[in-house]
Amino acid sequence: MGLSTHVLDTMHGCPAAGMAVELYTTGGGQVQLVRRFILNEDGRNPDGPLYDHASLRAGTYRLVFGVKDYFASKGVVLPEPAFLDRVSLDFGVAHADQHYHVPLLVSPWSYSTYRGS
Prior knowledge:
By secondary structure, this protein is mostly beta strands. It is built from 1 helix and 8 strands, in the order E-E-E-E-E-H-E-E-E.
């Protein structure tokens, strides 16, 4: 299945619909933007996997999530500066033949991630 992500808003107990996300490749000291997208009503990329099984390559990647702007758009009063602004997750893909799912559980004050299924 390739590479996918899913974001859950733990403050409101729902998917983070409307959050902006960026995907980068980070190999060889170079950071290159692959795509930008807005999460759908289920908190996922509306176009499906970020990379399908045939396109995913071993290497290093970065997902950047627009946490501050998302919570501000939901009417959450945030301090200035906000505790979390953009959350960057750097991760490696060692086995391109396997599925890599990178979920984010997030509130204005905390986040967690793991390699999902």
